[in-house]
Every structure is written in C-alpha cells, then in structure tokens.
Write a structure and sequence with these properties.
18 helices; Ribonucleotide Reductase, subunit A; mainly alpha; single chain
Length: 391
Amino acid sequence: MKTQSQSGSTERTNEEMIGRADVNDLEAILSVTNTDVDEIVHLIRAEQDALFTWDYERSRGALIKLYEKAKTSQWNAETDLDWSIDVDQEKVVLANAEQNAMGASGALAGLAPDTDLADTPFAKFGEKEWIQLGIESQNWTLSQFLHGEQGALICTAQIVETVPWIDAKYYASTQVMDEARHVEVFAKYLNEKLSGMYPINAHLRMLLDDIIADSRWDMTYLGMQIMVEGLALAAFGFIHTLTTEPLLKKLLRYVMADEARHVAFGVLSLKEYYGELTAKEMRERQEFAFEAAVRMRDRFLQQEVWDRLGLPVKDVVKLMMDLPERQFFQAMLFSKIVPNCKKLGLLDAADGWLRERFTEIGVIQFEDWVDTGEEYEALDEVAKDRAAVAS
C-alpha cells in the first residue's frame, strides 16, 4: 500500500523501488542474476531530448573553473603508465596481505584474523585456495569497474546532449574523453596483466539500465555523477591504499583524479537545479538515490566469485553480510555519496525521507564528511605530475 507524506507526494514502497520489502532479503538479492553472460551487445531504449542552446555566454564560474582544470589534467593511458611492469597476481595477493598486516582470510575475504572458520564454507581453505580467491576477487572487482566506466561513458555522452547550459556541455565533453580513457585502461589492465574477465554483475546492470533509460537529464547526473561515480571514487581509494602493485596504484591515482572532478561536476550542476524543484520532484530524486544505493551495495557481494570457486553462494553471502568488518567496508563505500546528497538538499527534503533510508542501511554517519564539490582540487594531482615530468 502506498502512503501519503506530509509534502503531499505518494511514497513508493520498497517493492516498487527495489523489488523487495526488506533491503536485506538475501533470497531476493540472490534471485537477481545475469542470464546473458555470453551477450556481446546490450540494448537499452533511451528517449532523452537533445537540447541545443543559443546562449553561449559563460555564466557559471564554478563550471568554467572545472572545465579549465579538466583541459590541463588529461593524461594518456599509453604513454603515462609503464605497461612494461610485470604483474604476478599470486605475488601481489601475498604482498598485499603482508603489507596490510592481515592474514590471508582478512586480506582476501574481509574476515578478521581471529574469525572462526570451522563451520563455514572456508573451513578447508589452505594457502592455495586463499590465493585463488584473491586472484578471482581482483579479476571480478576490476571487471565491474570496467563495465561501470562504460556506463559512465554512455551517460556522459547523454549529458552533453541533454543538459541545457553551455558551460555544462563544455565540461561534459571532457568527461566523455575521461571515461573513454578509463574504459581503455581497465580493459588493457584486465586483458594484459590479470587472468580473466567477469561479465557485468546483474545489480550493476539493472542500475545502469535505469540511469540510461530515464528521460530526465538531471537523473543521469544523479545516478551516474553522484551515486555511481561517488561510490567508485571511494572504492578506488580503498584499493589504491591496499595494493602493492605499482602499475595499478598509479593507474588508480590518475583515475581518482578524474573521478573527483566528475562527482564535483554533478554536485555543482545539480545544486543549482535542485533549488528550483518541488517537494514531490525532490522525493522522486530521493527515491532514485535510495534505489541506486541499494543496488550498488548488493553488487559488492561478489556472488559470481563464490560461484566460480564452487562455494555455496547463499552460505558465503550470508556470512559476509553478517560480518562487522564487511559491514564497515560496505558502509565506507558511501563516504563520498552521503555528504554530496546532503549538499544537494536530498537528505532532508520532503520530510527527510532519504535521511531515514540512509540511516536504515547504516551510512548516515558520513553526512558531515567533506563533499566532493570542495574536495576535487586536493585529489587532482595529475596536472602537477605531468608538469613535473615535463620539467
């Protein structure tokens, strides 16, 4: 049954937004699977309007500054990264575990070193099995980044067409190039340095399909620039900190610099637009943000990895969902999203609906962290690095 909020908007149920009443319903989460793992082309019907603007006046100072930053921060995946570096995945797995002072289970499955594994699917795991889990986990993680970056490439091309401001069109055109470079670099790393690619996770594909198919230009911003790119920025930061592999470390630092600008672009653009929306329109954006948050959380359960290793997927996922360490990791992935939603007014608009939902999924504690609208300059070091090399 739908309920009426004080703002007059009709509240959609969890079933209508995410297909289940309980966001933690394990059976429902695992029922979402990718049945087209062998497909090469995936078609989404999109009906966005392409907008010309005859107003060429440069009137948005923050976007002008961001555009100038983007022009001087372009990097070349072929020449700015040392692809001659040899990547031995087994050695990388062991080095990462040693550097981070964690046992194999902690480094590879998010388990505390003292976790009792006697009655778990990992009970008979030895060093060989833990190493293979580490290899598969890296293959899976970077594969999902690759697929997400292609989603960002398509969405940003849509933004160039649909956003009504010339300054935003200028900046979005630079992001199209950024995203093409990210797809290129992750595909090359997976194909040349790692040992296998995974198809797109079903939860991630559902989210990308929803973002691309929505005809409203600001929903493309919200879904991709704020939610998907915001989570990616946090995830890249985690991996950059934990990995010992020098090529991946530098690759991620370059990508993070780009991603910080992309999220800032979304914050700067939507803050102006959202100030003009009604309570009902804001509720629709809040619901879209919540749906995106749940789908992104669900995709990190790595069902495909457990299946490939021959483990009982439901048992492993239940174990992972109940672990405090895993819950902390998943919450931290939202450390960029929540403060950006707050800056956009999404947390407390329409009776504070999104604040309640983010509280329910355990991520509201990040609301006062630095938003990316202020943070991107600190993260954008690529131009400085290139200038130093040139000198």
